[in-house]
Specification:
The structure is a homodimer. The first copy, chain A, is mainly α and about 120 residues long. Chain A is built from 6 helices and 3 strands, in the order H-H-H-E-H-H-E-E-H. The first copy, chain A, has a single domain, classed as Winged helix-like DNA-binding domain superfamily/Winged helix DNA-binding domain (Arc Repressor Mutant, subunit A), CATH 1.10.10. Helix content of chain A is about 60%, strand content about 10%. Chain A is elongated, with a radius of gyration of 21 Å. The first copy, chain A, starts with 13 loop residues before the first helix and ends with a helix. Chain A binds a DNA duplex (30 and 30 nucleotides) through helix 5.
Chain lengths: ~120, ~120
DNA sequence: CTTTCGGTTGAACGGTTGTTCAAATGATAT
DNA sequence: ATATCATTTGAACAACCGTTCAACCGAAAG
């Protein structure tokens, strides 16, 4: 008989699965949460967030700080904007970026704690 | 004259760049932080973490819960293991997965706060 | 109005990532 | 010892991601 690998597999502990299924968040909530974290999962964006947490900065200065092109920085800033993590302020020709709220810093702190602990 | 786009661009506010450059974390720290967040930036892994936060679970049950193959789940669990987010316990033939510490939950909470606030 | 220039955008490219499929482990139960 | 079966693994493939390049946009300065 051929060894058929079932695609969804047999449940071993039905009681546990049922119990957990009750409390799992709705699809759109896990989806939004995943997009939120996805933004942090890149070194460039992490550095940008860290930098503008210290001081509001423009694209040119961020590019100089990180040793990247303005274009690359701008592409990343767009993602941060879409995720509502940053807000902007114009002064003459220059646009300054800053964090939109303090949750970002708090999420950072908890994560650093976890990593330090190892 | 041809319009040459310089690759690193002119600094506009040298004082700010220098100040921020002082406090930016070391390369390896941002790197570890990014890998940590990268793990959360996927809906499947997020659901797995959420599930085993409620109750320790085996691969088969997780696969059934999420409607995925055991293989797919196992691949993701490997990433969670590498990031020290989960630990295992064997009972007979079955291996139960559970969260390795409570920081994970705390990071979740802060993020949900940010998202709810919108 | 025209020029300047910081910032944005879109296409294109390598590289990475998540899932599937098939095969292999390896601890347990017989 | 052998068979069973939960779990792991590796290769392959499509989808996605980050950077570069070139062109464009638009507010402000002249």
């Amino acid at each position: 008989m051929p060894d058929i690998q079932e695609s969804v597999c047999a449940v071993i502990h039905k009681d546990i699965v049922d119990e957990v299924k009750e409390s799992i968040p709705r699809e759109d909530e896990t989806s939004r949460l995943a997009s939120f974290f996805k933004v942090f999962g890149d070194e460039t964006r992490l550095k940008i967030l860290w930098a503008i947490d210290r001081h509001e900065m423009c694209v040119c200065d961020l590019a100089a700080l990180l040793g990247m092109t303005k274009s690359a920085v701008s592409h990343q800033l767009r993602l941060l904007r879409e995720e509502n993590l940053v807000r902007t302020r114009r002064d003459g020709k220059v646009i300054f970026y800053q964090l939109s709220d303090s949750h970002v810093t708090q999420v950072f702190e908890k994560s650093v704690e976890h990593i330090e602990e190892k």
